[in-house]
Structures are given as structure tokens and as C-alpha cells.
């Protein structure tokens, strides 16, 4: 989705803004633009398509000079991707330029009002009303005009604004959309995402809803919703630019797949002390709850499906898992005895935020499992546990998903300990198995070259099925999503036992069925489903535990992964499926890190 960035200092802003926009590309976008305060007026450059087109325009415009500016990558919501609709947007008098991430819900009303004053709009965007209203409100005081403007806006926004009359000054504001200020030496920055800033500074301020920031080269001032100056903590980022770069890999997705042992380790180890799971950051009385709801979107929801199984198995408490886009409109039955677990890598997913607000409104306690520190979901939740996966850039989540699953498993073991629904032996055995996941993940990654061969063999299947039971079914959902989102092949995940109730009609000679067979309690059942599809001519690629001899005679090909506890199967079993999706997409010539029509963080409904 959209990304914003800005710079004020003593260097030329153009290259800094373009570098920031390149780092925001992973979020998904269809046009980009920058604006700087020139000698006499605000100068703008925009391009439809890739940031590289904008870089070409910049290189062809030697007069584009200024030490203070703003930049934007746009993912179209209001109006087609075009140079006119691309940000920054300029006020009709040419005095102000704005970049915006979010949606102004009452833009039509504001636009109609401003048009009555004869103000002419150039674009179809909701964003343009911000800058036109700002210019309309401006009577010589930049800050006051901005405060008056944002007071009128409904919806969500992270904005950056420059004015031709105020050299070196940028104002930013936020409501329900991420915004970070970066602090430098006689130069300061803002962005919607740390990755855009981390090559320049590691000291940041996380903006909260309703706050406004004033950036000049000399310093940063933060104001509350009433315009009073406030003090905010400075956060030092511990990861470096290499974490946000490809480090020699061809794609971020492959780098992030390979980083999983390390990401799992970082998520697990600080929370295990003397074979006990300790969440120092969590003050939660589990005895208060009589049910759990898990809600999330996409892969995070698939992690939630795994979490449902683990929590129910260990805590013996009813658990529901539901996609946030449905839960938010379902008027769910919950109260102060309900624990809601929301899961999100980015912490900015609009549907998940809306669902958690609805749950809070109904009195539920919300625990968030989030990767991005200081994100909206982390802030809105009553309690938060962070996955320590590090920055995830590829649109298709990999280490984000596996760290979510392991954290849910750790939470389930911890909660079962609190509720005394787990024996000492079972508790210790789970903790030991969790501790061994990084090493087992590494062994699953050793399948890399074998999975590549499988992709060579099967990449041209235009439609395929993933089947499995219980934990294997949860992995089927994620494996299927991974494949379709980056390779654009049609694929469906089915509970293996459900196939015969209709979908088996689609099985025909040559159709590939990926059978997940690591949940051994139900292995016999899954094998009979494999036999049913084989009888109709399907080819079967199975994923099974090392030592599983039965599967060899049933499937055409098998990928063997290390044995682990049945409840932890998904963390390991998904790894060859991530690799399979990657290599199939590569064979099909797809844009792996930035699949068409998708965005990393879905901040619109
Ligand atoms: C996963 O590969 C997808 N890109 C997508 O389903 C994602 O998991 C979903 O949009 C939720 O994102 P979040 O974890 O940032 O909330």
C-alpha cells in the first residue's frame, strides 16, 4: 500500500527521497512522486509505474534542486494510477504540497465545500482535499492551518506537508496510519516505515494518533491534538540496513525463508528460562477467560488456525478462529470473559484493526501477536507479544508466519501451565521441542535443491490441490496461499476428508495434489484420501516425516522433513512449501517479491 517519506537538512533531498521510496517499494504501489522546496516554488516529479521511472525523470531534470522535500509511493484507491493522481498533490495556489497514506472518508463532502469557493481540483484522489483545505485555512501560520485542517478529516492518515513560504519546514500528522520520525544531525526525516529511514538514522520517534510533528534541520517538535508541545521517547533501532537488504539473495523472499532458523531462535530463546516459558512482558490472568477468539487476515489467519488447535489441545478452552474482515461485521458474541488474540506481521492491517476495535468495544481483552514494534495493532491491544522475525520485505510472508506459529505455541504452553491443564512431563517435552525448532527448520531448509527439482517437474500444473488433516490442513491453507500469491497458479486447500464431498470431481489425470502427511495421528486417513485421488489419475507430491515408509509407495514424490511434536508440525512442514512456491513462481517468470495486485500491508478495507 502507499508509503511516504520526507527529508529536511543540508543535502539535496531528491536522492534521499528516491532511496527511501525504493525501500518502500515492497509495500506494493503503482505510481510514485517527489516534491521539494525549490528556490522560488515547490517543484514536483511524478511517474506512473516503478520508482525507477521516477529516478529516470529526476536524472533528466538537473534543475530539480532543494534540501527539503517529501515523497510517496501510491497504491491506487481513489482514481486510476496516473501522473495526475500520483502524490504529492499541490494546492491550487501552488503554496503547499502533501503526501498521504490512508483514506479520507469524508473527502467528497470537503471537496464539494471547497469547490463552492471556486477551488479547482486536478485529481480524482481523496488526498487532494487535504492540501486544498490547508491552503484555504492558511492565514500565515503553517501549524495552525494544519491543525485546523486535520480536525476536519475523517478516516485514516499519515501525512507530510511542505510549504513554499516556510523553507526547511515539514509538518507531519497521523491518525490510524503508521508514521515515524527519524532523527539525524542537522537533518531530520519522516516515513511510514522504518525501512525507508534505517540507512540514514537508527534513532526514531513513533508518532501516536492525533499527534503532529514539526521537522526542521535544527530539530523536531511534537505536538498533541491541541497543539501543545510534548516530549516523546526516542527509540533506537537494533537491526541494521543489511537486514532490510537482500544480502546476496536474488529475492527478499528467499532471504527471508533462509532466515527462519534465526528468526525462530530470536522469538523463542529470550522467553525460555530453566525449561520454563516466561513472558516478562505479559501480565494476563488466564483464569479470567472462558473462551478465546483468534482473528487475523491471510497468512496470519492461517497461523491462527494452527494456534486454535494448539490452544484447544493444551488449555482445553474453546477457541474460534475467524478472518478479521468477517468478524468485524458479524456482531460476535463476546464479553469480558473473552480473550481475543489478533495476529499481524505488519501491525497495520485495516481489517484486523477494525475487528480488534469491535472486540474491545464488546469488552474482550485483546492480546496482539505482532512483528512490527510500535505498530498500530501493538499500540491498540491490551497486551502485546512481539515475534522477533526482523523486517519482512517480500509480500509473501514466510518468517513472519513461522514466528507467529511458534509464539502461539509458546503462549498455549504458558497458558496451559497457568491453567494447570498440562502435566509437568508434557510441559517440559513441549518446551524442549520448541527449543529444537530452529535446528529442525534448518534441516528442512536443506531440502532446498530437492524442492527445486520438484518445482521443475510440476511448475506447469495450472490448477492444483493441497490436502491435509488437522495441523496438516492448516499448513495446506498456507501452502496453497503461498503458491497462488506469487506464482498466480490456481490452487485450493482442502481438508483431505472433505475432497470426496464435491471437489474430487475436479481430479483428472495429471492434476497435482500436494498431500501434507506430517500429522501422523491421522496418517492412515490421509493415505486413503491419497489413494482416492491417485485412482483418478492425480500425481501426488507428499510432505512427510523422516522415517515414514508407508508414504513412499503411495505418493509419486515425497519431501521428508524432521520429526517434531504433532502440535508443532506446521513450523517445519511449511518450509518446503514456501520453497516450492518460490521455485514454481521463478520457473513461471513471476515477480516474486512484488506479486501483481498485492501489497505487503493492506491498510484499506
Ligand atoms: C501473506 O503472504 C500475505 N501477503 C497476506 O495474506 C498477509 O498475511 C495478510 O495481508 C495479513 O498481513 P499482516 O500479517 O501484516 O496483518
Write up this protein.
The chain is an alpha/beta fold. 35% of the residues lie in helices and 23% in strands. It contains 19 helices and 27 strands. Helix 15 crosses helix 19 (569-587) and helix 16 (471-487) runs parallel beside helix 19 (569-587). The longest helix has 21 residues, at 399-419. The model has no long low-confidence stretch (mean pLDDT 93). Bound molecules: 2-deoxy-2-amino glucitol-6-phosphate.
Short descriptors:
single chain; 605 residues; alpha/beta; Glutamine Phosphoribosylpyrophosphate, subunit 1, domain 1; Rossmann fold; 3 domains; 8-stranded antiparallel beta sheet; 7-stranded antiparallel beta sheet; 27 strands; 23% strand; binds 2-deoxy-2-amino glucitol-6-phosphate
Could you outline the blueprint of secondary structure elements for this entry?
Blueprint: E1 3-8, H1 13-24, E2 31-37, E3 42-48, H2 51-59, E4 68-74, E5 89-90, E6 96-104, H3 107-116, H4 128-137, H5 142-152, E7 155-163, E8 170-175, E9 180-183, E10 188-191, E11 203-206, E12 212-216, E13 219-223, E14 229-230, E15 235-236, H6 252-258, H7 260-268, E16 272-273, E17 276-277, E18 291-296, H8 298-315, E19 319-323, H9 324-327, E20 338-344, H10 350-361, E21 365-370, H11 376-380, E22 383-386, H12 399-419, H13 424-435, H14 437-445, H15 448-458, E23 463-468, H16 471-487, E24 490-495, E25 512-516, H17 523-534, E26 539-545, H18 550-554, E27 557-561, H19 569-587
Parallel strand pairs: 18-19, 18-20, 20-21, 21-22, 23-24, 23-25, 25-26, 26-27
Antiparallel strand pairs: 1-4, 1-10, 2-3, 2-4, 5-6, 6-7, 7-8, 8-12, 9-10, 9-11, 11-15, 12-13, 13-14, 16-17
Bound molecules: 2-deoxy-2-amino glucitol-6-phosphate.
Residues 297-300, 344-346, 349, 352, 395-397, 485, 601-602 line the site of 2-deoxy-2-amino glucitol-6-phosphate (AGP).
